[in-house]
């Protein structure tokens, strides 16, 4: 598959068929994940691949409770839609996210992406050297995993809603306290087959791009 085509058609898939994934396909996605760049090549990631049905159901139950709090809180701060098309798109996304909340535990594979609780901030004689969040050294690995899954016809999405009850998820999978669970990626064959993989509506790149100085829309 052409890389650009894979990038343009890698989207959030939240409805999965029940059949299990081949372990070798999952390992291929993980091999792609660990090839991602990281600050200072620290490679801070660990992955917990959950295939056990009881554990998946338990994580799904925690996730649904978290989403039941998250959805109304998010709705309360959402600005009014700017058009009827935007409202339709939001409602479609909301239904899809609610479906995931109600069926997460049915996804054939759940991947917990973990990172040690570290700081990337150094100091020198002049004070702290803020080089950004260490999460920046993990999320490229998550994207690699999702792109590899796309190439294999496997749907994925990235969620962090479970973090509302992260300690419960940690206990379910025996994740040590010194690790943050920074992403949860359900994986499975899309209910709608290959048609699930398609570009989604996005603001055109030209409308969010500035050349050399903020506000300069042309080079």
What attributes does this structure have?
globular, 219 residues, NADH Oxidase, 6 helices, alpha+beta
List unreliable stretches of 5+ residues: none
Structural shape: globular
Order of helices and strands: HHEHHEEEHEHE
- What's the level 1 CATH class? Alpha Beta
Q: Tell me what portion of residues adopts beta-strand conformation.
A: 5-15%
Average pLDDT taken over every residue = 94
Instruction: Please indicate the count of domains.
Output: 1
Q: Find the count of extended strands (DSSP E, 2+ residues).
A: 6
Spatial ordering of strands, largest sheet: 1-2-6-5
User: Quick one: CATH superfamily?
Assistant: NADH Oxidase
Fold blueprint:
Blueprint: H1 3-9, H2 23-33, E1 46-50, H3 53-77, H4 84-103, E2 109-116, E3 122-124, E4 127-129, H5 139-151, E5 155-156, H6 166-172, E6 179-188
Antiparallel strand pairs: 1-2, 2-6, 3-4, 5-6
Protein described:
This protein is an alpha+beta fold and about 220 residues long. It has a single domain, classed as NADH Oxidase, CATH 3.40.109. The protein is about 40% helix and about 15% strand. It contains 6 helices and 6 strands; from the N terminus they run H-H-E-H-H-E-E-E-H-E-H-E. The protein has helices at about 5-10, 25-35, 55-75, 85-105, 140-150, 165-170, and strands spanning about 45-50, 110-115, 120-125, 125-130, 155, 180-190. Strands 1-2-6-5 form a 4-stranded antiparallel beta sheet. Strands 3-4 form a two-stranded antiparallel ribbon. Strand 3 (about 120-125) and strand 4 (about 125-130) form a beta hairpin. The radius of gyration is 19 Å and the shape is globular. The mean pLDDT is about 95.
